[in-house]
Amino acid sequence: MELVFIQDMMKVEDTSNTLRVLIATDCHLGYMEKDEIRRFDSFQAFEEICSIAEQKQVDFLLLGGDLFHENKPSRSTLVKTIEILRRYCLNDNPVQFQVVSDQTMNFQNIFGHVNYEDPHFNVGLPVFTIHGNHDDPAGVDNLSAIDILSTCNLVNYFGKMVLGGSGVGQITLYPILIRKGTTSLALYGLGNIRDERLNRMFQVHHKLVSIGCLDNLLEDSVSIIGLNHLIPQTPHAVQWMRPQAQEGCPVSDWFNILVLHQNRIKTNPKNAINEHFLPRFLDFIVWGHEHECLIDPQEVAGMGFHITQPGSSVATSLIDGEAKPKHVLLLEIKGSQYRPTKIPLKSVRPFEYAEVVLKDEADIDPNDQASVLEHLDKIVREVRNLIEKSRKASVSRSELKLPLVRIKVDYSGFSTINPQRFGQKYVGKVANPQDILIFTKAAKKRQSIEDKIDDSERLRPEELNQQNIEALVAESNLKMEILPVNDLDIALHDFVNKDDKMAFYSCLQYNLDETRNKLNTEADKLKIEEEDIILKVGECMEERVKERSLHSKGNMRITSSLQNLQVTRNYGAVRKRP
Amino acid sequence: MELVFIQDMMKVEDTSNTLRVLIATDCHLGYMEKDEIRRFDSFQAFEEICSIAEQKQVDFLLLGGDLFHENKPSRSTLVKTIEILRRYCLNDNPVQFQVVSDQTMNFQNIFGHVNYEDPHFNVGLPVFTIHGNHDDPAGVDNLSAIDILSTCNLVNYFGKMVLGGSGVGQITLYPILIRKGTTSLALYGLGNIRDERLNRMFQVHHKLVSIGCLDNLLEDSVSIIGLNHLIPQTPHAVQWMRPQAQEGCPVSDWFNILVLHQNRIKTNPKNAINEHFLPRFLDFIVWGHEHECLIDPQEVAGMGFHITQPGSSVATSLIDGEAKPKHVLLLEIKGSQYRPTKIPLKSVRPFEYAEVVLKDEADIDPNDQASVLEHLDKIVREVRNLIEKSRKASVSRSELKLPLVRIKVDYSGFSTINPQRFGQKYVGKVANPQDILIFTKAAKKRQSIEDKIDDSERLRPEELNQQNIEALVAESNLKMEILPVNDLDIALHDFVNKDDKMAFYSCLQYNLDETRNKLNTEADKLKIEEEDIILKVGECMEERVKERSLHSKGNMRITSSLQNLQVTRNYGAVRKRP
Predict the structure, then answer these.
(1) Fewer CB in 10 Å around end: N or C, chain A?
(2) 8 A C-beta contact, residue B132 and residue B288
(3) Confidence of residue A543 (pLDDT cuts 50, 70, 90)
(4) Is B236 part of the annotated catalytic residue set?
(5) pLDDT tens per residue, range B255-296
(6) Number of H-type helices and E-type strands within chain B
C-alpha cells in the first residue's frame, strides 16, 4: 500500500470516515513522586495529554507503554492516575468506531471486551495501551500495573504476550480491528519483551523473509481464507495475524499500525530492535521506550512504513535527548491516507542541557578552582536566561515551574568539584540543584569505540551497585560458570522488584535451551561424539559468559534489593534505562 | 429510642420503607495469597458475601474494615478485588434509598459523592466501608488501599478521620444520612485509630457525659438548629454530629448505627475501646476487628444499644475464636425497629481447634515420645473425623477444601516435638500441615494474671522479632530514655510498611504533647518552679516508658523491615493482631 501525505486531503472535514487518534508514550506516572518540587510533573503532563484528546475530539488515545514509572505503583500514584482517567475518559461523548476483531484475543482480562462496550460504564474517550519495561507484567499471575486500570475498565490493555513454545518462545500478534465508516485500522500491539529475546525471535522471522517464502504465503493464502480465520504470516517465533479479505474490503485496505516499546538506539545490535526486522505490510509504527521526541514520522528506506517516536512526556534522565521540546501526535487516518500533526506539551517542566570541556575553555586554570566555579556558574546563568527568554516568548502553564538544568562537564586535566555544594546557591531557582553538574572524562571514552553508552547513565549512582549485585548472586549459590551473570542480574531484579517467583527458573531454562540449541546445530555440522558433549557444554557456557560480559555495561538495569529500598526512599529515582 | 425485636413485624413485606443491609467485616483480601492451598480463601469468602447481598436483594453492603489484609495490596489482590466488586456492584438494579447528608463531608475523595449517583457508572449494589488497622491510611497523602477502590467508584469509603487539634487530637463524625421511604438511618463510621489514642479521646468525652452537660446540650439545641446545620454533641475530642430535626421527622426518629474497627477484648484497658464510652444515642453498633463471630446482637446494659460483632470471613489466626462458624448479618430496618438475621458463610475453609494438656492424659509417658506422637495423631484424626461428619451433614462449597487443624498442646513436664515433622503425614490431608501443633506451657502463664495474651499469638514466629526491632531502634539513634520503645516500634512499623515519612515525627510530637500536658496539670497542682521542669520532664518520660513496657507484650504489632521482606516471601503471614 502506498502512503500519501496530503496536508489538505481532509480540508473538507469528513469525520464519519476519519479516525482521529492521539498518540503519546512513556508518561512514567509517579516519577519522582517523593520529590517536593517534581512530584506532580508526570501527572500534569498526562492530564495535559488527556485534555488535548478531549479538546481535539479524538476517537481514542493510544499509549506506547511505561504509563507507570514503577512496576508496583504507590497507592498515591494509582489514585492520581485513576482520578485523571475517570475525569477524562468517562463522559457522554459517543464513541464513533467499532472493534470488529475477536476481543477476547485482544484483551486479556476476564471481561474480555473493549471498555466502551461495557454497559455499566459511560466511556467517552477510550484509551488503548501496551505495557513498557517499567510496568511490564510480573509475578505468578503475570499481572502488570496496567491490569489494575484495565480491570477498572479505564484503559484497554493490549499487546500482552504469552511467551509460548520452547526455547526462545513464540508470540502471536492479534490486531485490534477497528472500523470507522470506510476506514479500517488493524492495530498491532507488542508490549515490552527483553530486547535480546525479542531480537532473537525476529531473527528467526527475518531469515524467512529474506528467502522470500513469506510474502508468497501471505498473498496465496488471502483468497482462500474464510471469514473467521486470521492468517499467520509466519509459522515461526513471531506470528502476525492478518485480517481476512472481505467483500468490499480486501486485506490491503487495512491500515496497519504497530505499537511497540523497545530499544531503538543500538548500544550493541543484540540490545535493540532493528527496524528492518519488522514486516513490510505495516504502514505506521509507534515506537515507545525511547525518551527523545522524534515525533515527525520518519520513513524507513525500503520498508514502506514510517515510524513516529513520540518520546516521554516527562524527563526521567537529564540527558540531551530529553531536553528537546516534548510533543504528542494527532494522527488522522482516512482509508489508506493519514495526516500527522504534532502538538507541543505546555505543562512540561523546562529543561536545558549543556556540555562543557574544561580544557577547551580559555578563561580557566586547572590550579585555580575558583575560576572553574565561576565559569560553571556563568554557564548555569546563561542556561537559565535562555529558559527565561523562551518562557517570555510562549505563555504556558510551565511558566511557574522551576527549570531543570544539567551541565555535563568534561573535567579532563581538572579535578571535580562537589555538585551538591555547587548547587546550594540554586536552591529555589533550579528544580534539581543537587545534580546540576555531572562530571565525565571524554578522552577515556573515545578510546573504546564499542562502548557507546552515555557517561551520564553510568554516573548515576542509583543505577547500579555492582558489588551488591555480586554479593547477592554469590549468596544465591548460582555460579557464574554456569549462567551468565548478566542474565542472573535480570533474574534477581525481577525476583526482588517484581515478585517474580519464577525468575531464576526462567533464567536457567532459557540458558539451558540456548545451550541445547547451539549444541544441536554444532552436532549436525561436526558430528560430535556423545562423549564430547559434556566438554562442549562447558565451552559453550564459557563462551556465552564472555559474550555477555562484553556487553554487560550496555544493558545493565539492575538494582539490588537493598539498593531498591534506598532508592524508594530517595525519591523514586530511575531504576532502568531510559 | 426503644428498640424492639419483632420477628414478624415485617411479615407483610413492606420493602418501600424497609432498609435491607448486609453486614460483614474483616475480609482480609489477599491473606495467604502466596500459599498454594489457601491463596483464594479470602476472595472466595468475599465473593460469597457479595452473592448473598445479590440474592437477598439488599439495599447496600456494609463492611467493618480490613477489607484488605495488606496495607499495600499486591497487583494480584487489587485485580481480584476489583473484579469481584465490578461483577457484583455494577448492574441494572435500581438503588432505592437516598443519601441526604452533605456527601462531601461523608466521602473524602475528589469526587465527593456516593458512588451510585455518579452518572457514568451503573451501580446497583452500593458498598459502604470504613478502613481497618490493616488497610488504614498512611503516607504523605494519607491514602488507604480502600482509596483505590473508592477512586474507581466501586466502594463508598467513609469514616476516614483527619486527626486535627493539638495533643491527643480531635475527630468529628459526620453520619451518612440515608432515607428509604419513612425509614431514616444515620450511619456513623469510625475507621481504625490506634486504640490507645482513641481511648484517650473517648475518656475526655466520657468525663463530659458523666457530668451530664452533654445531653442537655444536645436536647436544648435540637429545636433551634436550622436545616443546614448539624449539632456537635461535644465540643471536645470526639464530636458526634447529629441530624437536625425536620418536619415530620424529629431527631429521635433517626436510627443510629456506628461502624468501628477497634480492639474490644481487653488485654489491658488502654488497649481496647470500652463499650460504655460510646454515646447513648446510638442504636446499633457494628464492631469490626475482632475475628470471633459473635454476630447475634448483644445488648449493652444501661447503654440502650446492641452490638453485633460479625467476625472475620477468613481465619487469619488459628485460635479458638476463629474456629467458630463464620456468618454475616442481614439487618432489616423499618423506622425504629430492626430484624437481624444471621447467614452462615458456606465457602469458608473448615477449621477445627482443640487443646490438650499432656500431663492430664492417662495413656502417655513423658519418657516415651512415641506415645506422645501417637496420642497427638489420635487427636488430629478425631478432629478430622469431626470435620468429615459436619461436611456430610451440610452440603456446602467448602466440601472440597482441605481443613485447617490446630492443636494447642500444653507440654508442661514433657519435651516439645518438631511440628513440621509431625505435619508431614498430613500433607494433602490438612491445609496447614506445617503448623498443626503449637506448644505452650500453661502453668507459667497462670502465674501472671495481668498477662492475658494468648500463647498462640506469642509463639507465632512471624509476629515479632524483638531483637531485630531493638537493633533497628538503636540504629535510628532514638533513645529509649526519651521515647517509649513501644511507640517507636509503631513508628518504625509505619515507616517501613506504610511509607509514612512522618511516622517518627508524629511519634515525637505526640510524646512531647503528652509530656507537656502532664507537666501543665502537675504544674497547676504543685506550682512547680521553672528550674524543676527539666527534672520533671525526665521523670515523666521515665514513668511513661515504664508504663508502656508493662503493656508492651499486649499491643505489639510490629515486624522489622527485614522480617517483613521475609514474611512477604513466606506466603504473607499475619503481621498484626488479630
Answers:
(1) N
(2) yes
(3) low
(4) no
(5) 999 999 999 977 677 888 989 889 999 999 999 999 999 999
(6) 15, 19
Could you say which of B91, B111, B143 has the minimum Cβ distance to residue A75?
B143
Burial of B366 (0-12, 13-18, 19+ CB in 10 A): middle
**For B229-285, where are the alpha helices, taking DSSP H only?**
none
Tell me how far apart the alpha carbons of residues A16 and A22 are, in angstroms, rounded to a whole number. 17
Cα–Cα distance for residue pair A405/A430, rounded to 1 Å: 7
Closest CA–CA distance from residue B83 to any residue of chain A (Å)? 6
Which of A34, A79, A139 faces B76 most closely, judged by CB atoms?
A139
Phi-psi region of A454 (alpha: psi -120 to 50; beta: other; left: phi over 0): beta
Q: Which domains, from first to last, does chain B contain?
A: 15-344 (3.60.21.10), 351-452 (3.30.110.110), 466-569 (no CATH)
Beta bridge mates, B499: none
How many angstroms separate the CA atoms of A390 and A43, rounded?
23
Burial per residue of B473-505, b for 16 or more beta-carbon CB atoms within 10 angstroms, e otherwise: beeeebebeebbbbbbbbbbbbbbbbbbeebbe
A151 contact B CB<8A? yes
- pTM recorded for the entire structure: 0.76
Question: If pLDDT is split at 50, 70 and 90, which confidence band does A552 have?
Answer: very low
Strand order of the β-sheet with B231-232 is B171-173, B238-242, B231-232
Q: Is B91 exposed, middle or buried (0-12, 13-18, 19+ CB in 10 A)?
A: middle
Tell me if chain B has a CB within 8 Å of the CB of A78.
Answer: yes
- Measure the CA–CA gap between B255 and B362, rounded to whole angstroms: 57
C-alpha B22/C-alpha B59 separation (Å) is: 8
pLDDT at A253: 85
Contact A75 B147 (CB under 8 A): yes
Tell me the chain B residues in contact with residue A85 when contact means C-beta distances shorter than 8 Å: none
Q: Are B180 and B17 spatial neighbours (Cβ–Cβ below 8 Å)?
A: yes
Provide the pLDDT for residue B151. 97
> Using an 8 Å Cβ cutoff, are A541 and A2 in contact?
no
Phi-psi region of A343 (alpha: psi -120 to 50; beta: other; left: phi over 0): beta
pLDDT tens for each residue of A41-60: 999 999 999 999 999 999 99
- A-chain residues within 8 Å CB-CB of B122? 119-121
Contact B75 A139 (CB under 8 A): yes
Contact at 8 Å (CB) between B127 and B85?
yes
Residue B298 bridge partners (DSSP): B307
Average pLDDT over residues B520-526: 54
Determine the distance from the C-alpha atom of residue B200 to the mean position of all C-alpha atoms in its chain, rounded to a whole number: 18
> Which residues have a Cβ under 8 Å from the Cβ of A237 and sit 6 or more positions away?
A165, A168, A169, A170, A171, A200, A201, A202, A204, A205
Interface contact A571, partner B, CB < 8 A: no
- Distances from the Cα of A304 to the Cα of A280, A282, A284, B564, angstroms: 6, 8, 9, 54
The arithmetic mean of pLDDT across residues B559-575, rounded, is 30
Residues B366 and B410: their CA atoms lie apart, in Å, by: 13
Measured between CB atoms, which of A78, A499, A565 is closest to B74? A499
Pairwise CB contact (< 8 Å): B79 & A148: yes
pLDDT computed for residue A201 by the predictor: 83
Q: Which residue in A42, A48, A45 sits closest to A29, CA to CA?
A: A42
> Which amino acid belongs to residue A73?
P
Residues of chain A contacting residue B151, judged by C-beta atoms under 8 Å apart: 78-79, 82-83, 86
DSSP state letter for A139: T
List the Cα angle B237/B239/B241 in 5-degree steps: 175
CB distance B82–A151 less than 8 Å?
yes
Contacts of A34 in chain B (CB under 8 A): 140, 501
* Percentage with pLDDT > 90 across chain B: 51
